[in-house]
Specification:
The complex is a heterodimer. Chain A has helices spanning 42-49, 67-75, 93-100, 109-118, 132-145, 162-175, 190-196, 214-220, 233-237, 244-248, 259-262, 275-288, and strands spanning 3-14, 17-27, 31-35, 57-62, 65-66, 78-81, 150-154, 182-186, 199-204, 207-213, 222-227, 239-240, 251-256, 269-272. Chain A is α/β, with parallel strands linked by helices. In chain A, the strands form three sheets. In chain A, strands 6-7-8-3-9-10 form a six-stranded mixed β-sheet, with helices on both faces. In chain A, strands 2-1-4-5 form a four-stranded antiparallel β-sheet. A four-stranded antiparallel β-sheet of chain A has the order 12-13-11-14. The longest helix of chain A has 14 residues, at 132-145. Chain A starts with a strand and ends with a helix. Chain B has two domains: 13-76, Arc Repressor Mutant, subunit A (Orthogonal Bundle), CATH 1.10.10.10; 81-125. Chain B has five helices and three strands. Chain B has helices at residues 13-26, 39-46, 50-62, 81-105, 110-125, and strands at 35-36, 66-69, 73-76.
Chain lengths: 289, 126
């Protein structure tokens, strides 16, 4: 499988925070969801990919090219939506298209107008009088209208109401109809990941905890309940965040991280978990130790 | 093609997709050389990950039910009817095995299971 983003190494540290990544690849043609608690390094990772951290030691290839050498060519092929509104705040959506569209080789005005209409954005209203949600929609519409190969989104859904979120999700699906398109997005709304994400990248304290396909994740990380005497040593050591109460009652309960391997164990019952539940379990565990 | 995903089901999404396509083949709703929607458009339609539909299609392809023609799409394969019946038998046996295994794990005895099976079959014949 070819990759859209290939990180050989990425080291960065400031103000007591460090991000350390070796050999991470974001597959081309798929949606990768970036999750982790606040301060895990999600935004720092995204900013590094966009080469915005000058102090970082990094070796990153994007769409087969090095950012340091071919930055302009690459940025032409990346659509980016950040947490903050990146355009002059007195611009209206129409002006953003008129003045900034020319910077992108594949920008298409008709597509931009259509996207704004579908997202219910008034093209003539200045951004400074728009809500955060509307500004997020403007940014996304513009990013999509530049017809990028790679779409990078930092918390795109944070300010959107459920109806708008569903519309945006559908636009992302539409974008992914092209086989060579890739999305990397960070989010706290794991329900969206449960739907659209193909891969989940989990960061914690500046390190990659895992990068799994969603199928792999859901099959392996499941809630298990089994009588204590039926659980072998290996099974026990794969169960995280065990319940003390269940233990007293002679049972083992918790999140098994190798469920596929132990599926046939006698008297073990398994239950699928959502990405949110998996994330919470992985975080709780670290609080204990 | 009409598919419906039950998100509260214990059955994973990819398996639901797989089984529903198979059912439609067995019931004759999908016929040999019928074209399936592309992986990406079905993912959009069902609001699931591309990789989820891909897994279902890969499995169906391995079982010889569908065929991918590069550049054209995915199609239902044409195969003789007896093969279809055989498939159905294998499938039924597999489902039954899972059911029986879980029943036995929860303590149901062999003769109880036989009794239940016989009752169900007799009811159907009446």
């Amino acid at each position: 499988m070819s990759s859209a983003i290939e990180i050989k190494r990425l080291f960065i540290s400031f103000d007591g925070f460090g991000l350390q990544i070796r050999n991470l690849s974001i597959p081309k043609g798929y949606v990768t969801g970036l999750i982790g608690q606040n301060g895990a390094g999600k935004t720092t990772l995204i900013r590094s990919i966009l080469n915005l951290h000058r102090e970082a030691i990094q070796e990153i290839t994007i769409l087969g090219k090095m950012m340091e050498k071919e930055g302009i060519t690459i940025k032409d092929q990346i659509g980016f939506v950040g947490e903050n509104f990146l355009f002059p705040s007195h611009y209206s959506a129409k002006e953003i298209g008129k003045k900034l569209g020319v910077l992108y080789s594949r920008y298409e005005e008709a597509l931009y107008d259509d996207l704004l209409r579908r997202l219910d954005v008034n093209p003539r209203k200045s951004a400074q009088v728009c809500s955060e949600g509307t500004k997020a929609k403007m940014s996304l519409a513009f990013a999509l209208a530049t017809q990028p190969q790679l779409l990078i989104l930092d918390e795109p859904m944070a300010h959107l109401d459920p109806v708008a979120r569903r519309k945006v999700l559908d636009l992302l699906y539409e974008y992914m109809q092209q086989e060579n398109h890739t999305i990397l997005f960070s989010t706290h709304i794991t329900e969206d990941l449960d739907r659209i994400a193909d891969y989940i990248l989990f960061l914690k304290e500046g390190k990659v905890i895992f990068m799994h396909s969603k199928e792999e994740l859901i099959e392996n990380y499941q809630f298990i309940r089994i009588p204590r005497k039926k659980a072998c040593k290996e099974l026990l050591s794969s169960i995280r965040n065990r319940s003390k109460q269940a233990w007293k009652e002679g049972m083992v309960e918790g999140m098994c991280t190798q469920s596929r391997r132990f599926l046939d164990v006698e008297e073990a019952s398994f239950q699928q978990m959502s990405i949110e539940e998996i994330m919470i379990n992985l975080n709780q565990e670290s609080q204990k130790d | 093609m009409e598919l419906f995903l039950d998100r509260s089901s214990k059955e994973p999404n990819y398996l639901q997709i797989e089984n529903q396509i198979k059912d439609q083949v067995y019931q004759g709703k999908l016929k040999p050389s019928d074209q399936l929607p592309s992986i990406r458009s079905l993912a959009r339609q069902l609001n699931v990950a591309i990789i989820t539909v891909k897994r279902a299609y890969d499995d169906l392809e391995q079982e010889g039910i569908i065929q991918t023609i590069p550049g054209k799409g995915c199609f239902i394969r044409s195969f003789p009817l007896h093969q279809l019946e055989q498939q159905l038998e294998i499938e039924f046996k597999r489902n039954l095995e899972t059911l029986i295994l879980s029943a036995r794990q929860r303590g149901l005895k062999k003769d109880q299971i036989e009794e239940i099976l016989r009752k169900i079959l007799d009811q159907k014949e009446e």
